[in-house]
Amino acid sequence: MKKLLFIFVLLVTYAFGALNLQTASEAELMSIKGIGVKRAAAIIQYRKTHKIKDANDLKNIKGIDTQIVSNVENDVRNKSRKKVNANKKRTYKRDNTNLSKIKKDKAEKKLKDKKDRAEKKQKNKKEKAKKKLKEKKEKAKKKLKEKKEKAKKKLKEKKEKSAKKEKAKKDKAKKKLKEKKEKAAKK
Q1: What is the distance between the alpha carbons of residues 73 and 78, in angstroms, rounded to a whole number?
Q2: 91: β partners
Q3: What is the Cα–Cα distance from 73 to 32, expressed in whole angstroms?
Q4: What integer best gives the mean pLDDT of the chain?
Q5: What pLDDT score does 137 carry?
Q6: CA gap 125, 122 in Å, rounded
Q7: pLDDT in tens, 118-152
Q8: How far apart are CA 86 and CA 27, in angstroms?
Q9: Quick one: 25 exposed, middle or buried, by C-beta within 10 A (0-12, 13-18, 19+)?
Q10: What are phi and psi of 86, to 5 degrees?
């Protein structure tokens, strides 16, 4: 009974225990915080020629610092890894895109969008200004046309008035002449 209990405890410890760096797969290595595809590959390459006894041996690998060694010792796992079911094996899939490239692309896109919005705004301002100027010109032309028409109307009225006065004078002169002729004919 004691042997069974001991074996059970060993299995549980092995199942939930720390990672064996000498036999861990790339996916298992990548599950540790700070270890990605390149570092996992470097660890696998290193263990082909060297035996890894403990986490401190990882310091000999280029690109692995004390923080990563600490994460390995404390079994700090990445929470951002997604479990993928491939051929009924539990593996971890890592997003291999370069974060700085994504940030750069985002920044460039944001800058381009900002530039496009500024250009569009500037274009709209120009169009509004052109439209306003066109409206002002049309308004000025309309006012000028109205003034010309008003001036023509006044001139026409003045001519008609002066023509009436002239006609009235002629009629009056004719009437006086007629009256003089009638008086002269009576005498």
Answers
A1: 14
A2: 84
A3: 10
A4: 80
A5: 94
A6: 5
A7: 999 999 999 999 999 999 999 999 999 999 999 99
A8: 12
A9: middle
A10: -125, 120
3-state secondary structure of 32: strand
User: Within 10 Å of residue 39's Cβ, how many Cβ atoms?
Assistant: 19
Residue labelled with tokens 């009974």: 1
Maximum C-alpha span of the chain: 175
User: What CA–CA distances, in Å, run from 145 to 104, 153, 162?
Assistant: 60, 12, 25
DSSP state of 85: E
82-110 pLDDT tens trace = 443 344 444 444 444 567 778 888 889 99
Residues 17-27: pLDDT tens digits? 566 778 888 88
Query: 3-state class of 41 per DSSP?
Result: helix
Amino acid making up residue 104 = K
Q: What is the pTM of this model?
A: 0.35
**Residue closest to 83 by CA, chosen among 137, 28, 146:** 28
Closest by alpha carbon to 76, among 19, 22, 23? 19
